Amino acid sequence: xxxFSTWLLxxxxxxxxxxxxxxxxxxxxxxxxxxxxxxxxxxxVILAFVVLVCIILVVxxxxxxxxxxxxxxxxxxxxxxxxxxxxxxxxxSQSATNLLNYTxxxxxIIGMVLAIAVLLDLLVDKNRKLNPKDKKTDWFYxxxxxxxxxxxxxxxxxxxxx
Length: 162
Known about the structure:
The protein is mostly helical and 162 residues long. It contains six helices and no strands.
């Protein structure tokens, strides 16, 4: 994890995970957390453990971690985003006027954007991990002309040993 963007995304993943754990815990304790409720409390608990594994895999730069994170958040929050937008667009829906529905939709959108950003970061950075460039050492290890000069010089030096 050399990129600053990767560090920020992992930090946001952890912060969003802590936020979702607090939301699930407050819902279980029947306390109000600003009207934010989990979409499905059973899936929310399962998703919390899946996201922990995904965070570790993303830190290790494994593509499977970002893919699982994207799919799980897409299936969980994507349905809520679509339902929220259809509720907002339809004029006859009474739930569209509720501020709490807008708040839940906002956090669902944040979850979707975060999952897309993590997957895109892994896709873009995958090429750099497979073929890294380091200016400090590439002049020596990837310089064929330097190797040829060294080989020619080594052939001409015939030292006697005592």
